[in-house]
Amino acid sequence: MSKQSINNLKLGAFILTGLFALILSFYFIGKNQHIFGTKFKLRARFTNLNGLLEGNNVLYAGIQAGTVSSMSLINDTTIEVTLLIDKAIRPHIHQRAVASIGTEGLMGNKIVNITPATGNFPLVNDGDLLSARQVVNTDEMLQTLSRTNQNIAGISEALKISVLHINQSKLMALLDDPSIGNSLKSALKNIDRTAYQASHFAGNLNKVVLDVRGGKGLAGALLSDTGMTTNLRTAMINIRQATAKTQKMAVDLDGLVSQINNDLAGGKGTLHLLLRDSTTAGHIRQSLKNIEQGTDGFNQNMEALKHNFLFRGYFKDQAKKKTASSAVKP
C-alpha cells in the first residue's frame, strides 16, 4: 500500500472520530436542554421577566426539570412563559405549585423556579397554568440599596452637624464641669433615698389597707363592723339632736341675758338688788366675812380634835389610807 493511501486512511479516521465527537456533544447538550426525550408543557404568567430568555433552565425544588420554551405578550402587563418540563418530573408537580423567576447565583442567568405545593392536590396536566409569584429582582434591590445609602448619607451629615453644634453648646461645657458630676451623684443618691422611702411608705400603706380590709384596727372596725356603723350612725343622730338642743339653749340663754340686761337697766329683779344696791352689797360682804370667820374657827376646832386622844387614832388611819391610795395611782 502506498504512503498516500495510508495518509488518506488516517485522515478519514480523524474526520469520522471528529464527527462522532461532534454528534455525541450535540446529544449531551440536547439532553441537558431536553431536546431529546419525552416532555410536556406548563405555562406561567408574569408581569416582568427581569431578563429571562428562551432556553433558560427550569428548576423544580432546586432540581433541573426543563427549559423555557417560548414567551408571548398577552397584554401590556402580562407575559406568558411556556415551560418544557421532563415527564419524569410530572408525578411530583401538583396544580398548586408556584413559579417564580430567580437567578443562578448572585449575577448568573435567569431561571424559573417551581416551588412544590404543600398539601394533597391533583397532579398537573399538559398545558396547565401555574400560579406565579413576582420576586424582587437584582435591579430593584440595587435601586433600594442606593436610596438607602443616600438616606444614610443624609442622616450621617445631619448627625455630624448636630454633634458639632452639641460640642460647641453650653451643654458640653456643663457636662465637662467636674462639680456637675458630684452634684449629679448627690442628686441621684437623694433620688435613690427618696425612692426607697417611697417604696417603704407604699409597703406600709399597703399593709394598712390590707389591715383595714381585714377589719383590723379602728378604721377596719368602722368600715367592716356593721354594728359599729350602726352605733356611729346613732351617735351622729344624737350629735345632731344635741346640736339642735344647744342652739335652742343658746337662743334661750340669749333671751335670758337680754331680760337680765333689761332688769338691770330698769332697776328690777334680784340681780339689780345684788349688783346695784350698795346696802345689800354691804350685807352680803358682812355675811361672807362672818362665814370666813366661822370657817376659820371650824378649822381650829378640827385641828384641836386631831390632837385629842379620843380622835387621834381615827385621823391617823385616814391619813394612812390617803397615802396608800396615792401610791397605787399612776
3D architecture notes:
- α5 (217-224) crosses α6 (226-266), α6 packs across α7 and α7 packs across α8.
- This protein has a seven-stranded mixed barrel.
- The termini are far apart.
- Among the domains are: 1-32; 38-135, Elongation Factor Tu (Ef-tu), domain 3 (Beta Barrel); 277-316.
- β3 (63-73) and β4 (79-86) form a beta hairpin.
- The protein is an alpha/beta fold and 330 residues long.
- The radius of gyration is 60 Å and the shape is rod-shaped.
- The chain contains nine helices and seven strands, in the order αβββββββαααααααα.
- The protein has helices at 3-32, 138-168, 170-176, 178-213, 217-224, 226-266, 269-276, 278-307, 312-328; strands spanning 39-46, 57-60, 63-73, 79-86, 98-103, 110-115, 128-133.
- InterPro entries: Mce/MlaD, MlaD_Phospholipid_Transporter.
- The chain crosses the membrane at residues 12-30.
Q: Could you name the ranges where pLDDT drops below 50 across 5 or more consecutive residues?
A: none
CATH topology of the domain at 38-135: Elongation Factor Tu (Ef-tu), domain 3
Number of strands: 7
Give Rg in angstroms: 60 Å
The CATH architecture category of the domain at 38-135 equals Beta Barrel
Structural class of the secondary elements?
Answer: alpha/beta
CATH C-level class of the domain at 38-135 = Mainly Beta
Listing every helix as H and every strand as E from the N terminus to the C terminus, the arrangement reads HEEEEEEEHHHHHHHH
User: In percent, how helical is the residue content?
Assistant: 55-70%
**Global geometry:** rod-shaped
The number of helices is 9
Describe the biggest sheet? Answer: 7 strands, mixed, barrel
Q: Percent of residues in beta strands?
A: 5-15%
Widest beta sheet: strand line-up: 1-4-3-2-6-5-7
Taking all residues together, what is the mean pLDDT? 78
Distance between the termini: 157 Å
